[in-house]
């Protein structure tokens, strides 16, 4: 089954359906400033990978959430979960019901937007199930939720609120590696020495070939990598494990790292090699969506 076949929004209001919550990958992440309220300003090239959680909905008189999957342990099923927060935002105290089930594949707090992707999937799925329009204030669920509502590549600026859709990128595949260590985002930002660094070029080029795209990425940065590695040196080991990739970099605030590969076979070979060498790590592979 291809990634494109794994989303089946309800065919009519009230019907059952499903939506994939794709991992969000920051191919670049430039810290360009900090507002007076403490929020950091970013400039980031964001893509969605064909690796994710799956959210399902079925008719019900009341709202409920159940969770299964390899990443389910410790994930709350009450109002703390972003899926139910998204449902509450969309429902606006009208008391609509739905039976939601989340298959949790992505690790939590991993720098790949798992919870935000789940929230975005919940908004899209329940909007179809309840016959509603998507809310304009989805960012109140989290800064990454708006970008997770788009499958295609985006340039994300500001505090995550300024999104610019980008043309399709050259086809490529990602291997994601997470050593299962917790790297809290606030602590990584707090350890960032220079919070006002250069942005990406004002106009991003269009890329006709993967080598051209990778060469551009090599000239960009993830400004959070150094403070994250200082807190969790194993992140550097993850990057070393991806040394056969065209480019290896940390995503978001960590600890997940990605490697870019040209073909499915190359990516799968790297995934199998790393999983065999590091059986306690989370390792997955999938295509870049919108490429």
Automatic annotation (TrEMBL):
Lineage: Bacteria, Pseudomonadati, Pseudomonadota, Alphaproteobacteria, Rhodobacterales
Keyword line: ATP-binding, Isoprene biosynthesis, Kinase, Nucleotide-binding, Transferase
Pathway: Isoprenoid biosynthesis; isopentenyl diphosphate biosynthesis via DXP pathway; isopentenyl diphosphate from 1-deoxy-D-xylulose 5-phosphate: step 3/6
Annotated gene: ispE
GO biological process: isopentenyl diphosphate biosynthetic process, methylerythritol 4-phosphate pathway; terpenoid biosynthetic process
First-level EC class: transferase
Entry protein name: 4-diphosphocytidyl-2-C-methyl-D-erythritol kinase
Any one GO molecular-function label of the UniProt entry: ATP binding
Superkingdom of origin: Bacteria
Active site, per annotation: 24, 144
Similarity comment text for this entry: Belongs to the GHMP kinase family. IspE subfamily.
Enzyme Commission numbers on file: 2.7.1.148
Domain GHMP kinase N-terminal span(s) in chain numbering: 81-144
Record domain GHMP kinase C-terminal: where: 225-276
InterPro entries: GHMP_kinase_C_dom, GHMP_kinase_C_sf, GHMP_kinase_N_dom, IspE, Ribosomal_Su5_D2-typ_SF, Ribsml_uS5_D2-typ_fold_subgr
Gene3D superfamilies: 3.30.230.10, GHMP kinase, C-terminal domain
């Amino acid at each position: 089954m291809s990634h494109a076949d794994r989303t089946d929004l309800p065919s009519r209001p009230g019907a059952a359906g499903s939506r994939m919550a794709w991992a969000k990958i920051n191919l670049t992440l430039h810290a360009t400033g900090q507002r007076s309220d403490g929020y950091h300003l970013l400039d980031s090239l964001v893509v969605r990978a064909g690796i994710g959680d799956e959210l399902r909905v079925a008719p019900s008189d009341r709202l409920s959430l159940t969770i299964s999957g390899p990443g389910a342990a410790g994930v709350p099923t009450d109002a703390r979960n972003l899926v139910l927060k998204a449902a509450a935002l969309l429902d606006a105290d009208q008391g609509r019901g739905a039976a939601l089930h989340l298959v949790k594949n992505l690790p939590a707090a991993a720098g790949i937007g798992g919870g935000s992707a789940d929230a975005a999937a919940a908004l899209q799925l329940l909007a179809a199930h309840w016959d509603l329009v998507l809310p304009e204030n989805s960012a109140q669920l989290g800064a990454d939720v708006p970008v997770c509502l788009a499958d295609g590549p985006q340039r994300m600026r500001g505090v995550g609120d300024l999104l610019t859709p980008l043309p399709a990128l050259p086809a490529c595949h990602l291997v994601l590696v997470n050593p299962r260590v917790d790297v809290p985002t606030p602590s990584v930002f707090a350890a960032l020495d220079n919070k006002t660094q250069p942005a990406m070029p004002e106009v991003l080029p269009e890329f006709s070939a993967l080598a051209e795209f990778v060469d551009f990425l090599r000239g960009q940065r993830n400004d959070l990598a150094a403070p994250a590695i200082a807190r969790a040196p194993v992140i550097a080991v993850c990057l070393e494990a991806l040394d056969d990739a065209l480019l290896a970099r940390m995503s978001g605030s960590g600890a997940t790292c990605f490697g870019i590969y040209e073909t499915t076979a190359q990516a799968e070979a790297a995934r199998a090699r790393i999983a065999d060498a590091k059986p306690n790590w989370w390792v997955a592979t999938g295509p870049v969506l919108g490429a």
